[in-house]
Amino acid sequence: MKGLFRQHRTARQDQIEIFRHLARRGGLRAARRFFAQSEATFQRLATLPNLGTAFDPSDPRYAGVRYCPVLRFKSYVIFYRPVPDGIEILRILHGSRDLEVLLTSVLDDETEDEDAPEAE
Predict the structure, then answer these.
(1) Complete edge-to-edge strand list for the sheet that includes strand 86-94
(2) Domains of the chain, with CATH numbers?
(3) I need a surface site. Which of 25, 60, 74, 79 has the fewest CB within 10 A?
(4) What is the mean pLDDT of residues 1-9?
Protein backbone atom coordinates (compact mmCIF):
# COMPACT_ATOMS: atom_id res chain seq x y z
CA MET A 1 0.00 0.00 0.00
CA LYS A 2 1.45 3.35 -1.04
CA GLY A 3 0.88 6.75 0.43
CA LEU A 4 1.91 6.24 4.04
CA PHE A 5 4.32 8.45 5.90
CA ARG A 6 6.12 8.10 9.16
CA GLN A 7 8.09 10.77 10.94
CA HIS A 8 11.45 10.27 12.52
CA ARG A 9 11.26 11.53 16.13
CA THR A 10 13.50 14.46 15.20
CA ALA A 11 11.13 15.51 12.40
CA ARG A 12 8.22 15.43 14.84
CA GLN A 13 10.20 17.63 17.24
CA ASP A 14 11.01 20.00 14.36
CA GLN A 15 7.32 20.29 13.48
CA ILE A 16 6.39 21.08 17.09
CA GLU A 17 9.20 23.64 17.48
CA ILE A 18 8.20 25.39 14.25
CA PHE A 19 4.56 25.41 15.39
CA ARG A 20 5.58 27.03 18.70
CA HIS A 21 7.83 29.56 16.95
CA LEU A 22 5.08 30.58 14.54
CA ALA A 23 2.51 30.78 17.35
CA ARG A 24 4.77 33.20 19.25
CA ARG A 25 5.76 35.27 16.21
CA GLY A 26 2.69 35.13 13.96
CA GLY A 27 -0.09 33.90 16.16
CA LEU A 28 -1.89 30.63 16.68
CA ARG A 29 -3.71 30.88 13.36
CA ALA A 30 -0.42 30.95 11.40
CA ALA A 31 0.93 28.06 13.47
CA ARG A 32 -2.17 25.97 12.77
CA ARG A 33 -1.91 26.75 9.05
CA PHE A 34 1.72 25.60 9.09
CA PHE A 35 0.77 22.36 10.83
CA ALA A 36 -2.04 21.65 8.35
CA GLN A 37 0.15 22.49 5.35
CA SER A 38 3.05 20.36 6.59
CA GLU A 39 0.69 17.40 7.06
CA ALA A 40 -0.75 17.97 3.56
CA THR A 41 2.78 18.09 2.14
CA PHE A 42 3.68 14.83 3.91
CA GLN A 43 0.65 13.12 2.39
CA ARG A 44 1.36 14.49 -1.07
CA LEU A 45 4.98 13.32 -0.90
CA ALA A 46 3.93 9.91 0.42
CA THR A 47 1.71 9.50 -2.64
CA LEU A 48 4.33 10.91 -5.05
CA PRO A 49 7.70 10.23 -3.37
CA ASN A 50 9.80 11.39 -6.34
CA LEU A 51 8.12 14.80 -6.36
CA GLY A 52 10.88 16.36 -4.25
CA THR A 53 14.42 17.12 -5.35
CA ALA A 54 17.29 14.73 -4.70
CA PHE A 55 19.60 15.96 -1.93
CA ASP A 56 22.97 15.25 -3.45
CA PRO A 57 25.99 16.15 -1.35
CA SER A 58 29.01 13.88 -1.75
CA ASP A 59 28.41 12.02 1.55
CA PRO A 60 26.97 8.53 0.85
CA ARG A 61 24.82 8.71 4.01
CA TYR A 62 22.48 10.97 2.06
CA ALA A 63 21.75 8.35 -0.60
CA GLY A 64 18.06 8.41 -1.43
CA VAL A 65 17.31 11.55 0.61
CA ARG A 66 15.04 14.08 -1.08
CA TYR A 67 13.65 17.46 -0.06
CA CYS A 68 10.61 19.60 -0.74
CA PRO A 69 9.32 22.86 0.72
CA VAL A 70 6.20 22.86 2.88
CA LEU A 71 3.19 23.99 0.85
CA ARG A 72 2.61 27.74 1.41
CA PHE A 73 5.56 27.88 3.85
CA LYS A 74 8.41 27.77 1.32
CA SER A 75 11.06 28.75 3.91
CA TYR A 76 10.57 25.38 5.61
CA VAL A 77 12.00 22.32 3.91
CA ILE A 78 11.02 18.69 4.47
CA PHE A 79 13.82 16.13 4.14
CA TYR A 80 12.57 12.62 3.53
CA ARG A 81 13.47 9.25 2.11
CA PRO A 82 11.18 7.11 -0.07
CA VAL A 83 10.41 3.71 1.49
CA PRO A 84 8.39 0.82 -0.01
CA ASP A 85 5.02 1.96 1.37
CA GLY A 86 5.51 5.75 1.15
CA ILE A 87 8.09 8.00 2.83
CA GLU A 88 10.06 8.47 6.02
CA ILE A 89 10.30 12.11 7.08
CA LEU A 90 13.73 12.85 8.52
CA ARG A 91 13.70 16.58 9.32
CA ILE A 92 11.72 19.79 8.77
CA LEU A 93 14.11 22.73 8.73
CA HIS A 94 14.17 26.42 7.92
CA GLY A 95 16.09 26.87 4.69
CA SER A 96 18.49 29.40 6.21
CA ARG A 97 19.92 26.87 8.69
CA ASP A 98 22.95 24.63 8.15
CA LEU A 99 20.89 21.89 6.56
CA GLU A 100 23.65 19.37 5.96
CA VAL A 101 24.86 19.45 9.58
CA LEU A 102 21.32 19.18 10.99
CA LEU A 103 20.38 16.35 8.66
CA THR A 104 23.59 14.48 9.45
CA SER A 105 22.57 14.25 13.10
CA VAL A 106 19.53 12.15 12.14
CA LEU A 107 21.51 9.93 9.79
CA ASP A 108 24.19 9.43 12.45
CA ASP A 109 21.48 8.39 14.95
CA GLU A 110 20.25 5.78 12.47
CA THR A 111 23.77 4.40 12.04
CA GLU A 112 24.16 4.13 15.82
CA ASP A 113 20.79 2.35 16.08
CA GLU A 114 21.89 -0.19 13.44
CA ASP A 115 25.18 -0.82 15.28
CA ALA A 116 23.52 -1.28 18.68
CA PRO A 117 23.12 -4.89 19.81
CA GLU A 118 19.58 -6.21 19.77
CA ALA A 119 17.87 -6.75 23.10
CA GLU A 120 16.81 -10.31 23.87
Answers:
(1) 4-7, 86-94, 73-83, 66-70, 53-54
(2) 4-115 (3.30.2310.20)
(3) 60
(4) 86
